[in-house]
Each structure stands twice: as structure tokens, then as C-alpha cells.
Amino acid sequence: MVGFLAAMVATVLSTWALDLAGLVTRDMLLAERPLTDFIWRPDALSWVVGLLAGVAGMLSLTSKKSGSLVGVLISVTTVPAAANVAVAAAYRVWHEAAGSALQLLINLCAIVLAGLLTLAVQQLGWWRLARREAGRPARRGR
Fold first, then answer.
1. How far apart are CA 43 and CA 68, in angstroms?
2. Taking the model in full, what pTM does it have?
């Protein structure tokens, strides 16, 4: 969490520096961006993306096949929203910062919820398998 907040502060500072250098402007943030509106205008798909990332992440962790893909899935759902919160805050575009913060909150909640549900389903599956195995007679070698 500390690293995440530090990255957001660094983004605000970077935005101000880039603005002073004339490389970015507030108008760029306010311009039409139809391909990236989802970052600050959450909808039902926000939940779907977050849930899928959470399932993939938990399956990867519990199957001991954790790799860079998990980080990518989680990052895709959190980093754009967090970065846009910081950039919008740097330019004092509060409605967009609030929308991005909501998107981030939805994604984080969906990831955690999906992770917990995935663990519960896995636990139930392992419990059923153990019960089935316990009820079978032991095999004897010939």
C-alpha cells in the first residue's frame, strides 16, 4: 500500500514537472478519450475485469504457477485507475479523480472477492475429494 501511494505521489510530481516543461497540459486530460474512458467511468465491466483478474491471480498462486502474468492481470486493473487519480488530482479535475478512485476501489474489491471465492471453491473441491478417497477401500498390490 505504501508503495502504491508513493507511486501516485510520484505521478502527481511528474505531471507537474511535465506540465512545467510544456510536454503535457490540462487540456490533454480534458480532451475526448473514448478508448480510455473506462479508467474514470466505471461500469459493470469493471467488476467483470476485476473478478477475472482475482480468479486468475488466486489460481496461479494456489497452483504454484505464479508468474509474471498474475502481476500483469492485477496491474491492468489497478495501475491505470491509480495513475489517472494522480494526474486528475494534479490538475484539480476532481470529478475525474473521483471516478478513477471509484474504478480503483471496484477493481480492488472485485479482485479480493474473486480471490476469496476461488479459495472457497478450491477448498470445497479438495474436501470432497478427500471424503471420496476416505470412503474407498485401500488398493493392495499383487
1. 27
2. 0.78
- pLDDT tens, residue by residue, 118-128: 999 999 988 88
Beta-carbon count within 10 A of 45 CB: 9
Per-residue HEC secondary structure of the chain comes to CHHHHHHHHHHHHHHHHHHHCCCCCHHHHHCCCCCCHHHCCCCHHHHHHHHHHHHHHHHHHHCCCCCHHHHHHHHHHHHHHHHHHHHHHHCCCHHHHHHHHHHHHHHHHHHHHHHHHHHHHHHHHHHHHHHHHHHCCCCCCC
State how far the alpha carbon of 132 is from the alpha carbons of 47, 63, 64, 135, 136, in Å.
35, 22, 25, 5, 7
Instruction: Answer for the pair 85, 26: CB distance below 8 angstroms, yes or no.
Output: no
| pLDDT digit string, tens, across residues 23-45 | 999 999 888 888 888 888 898 88
Distance from chain centroid for Cα 4: 12
Residue 29 · residue 93 · CB < 8 Å: yes
What pLDDT does 65 receive?
A: 67
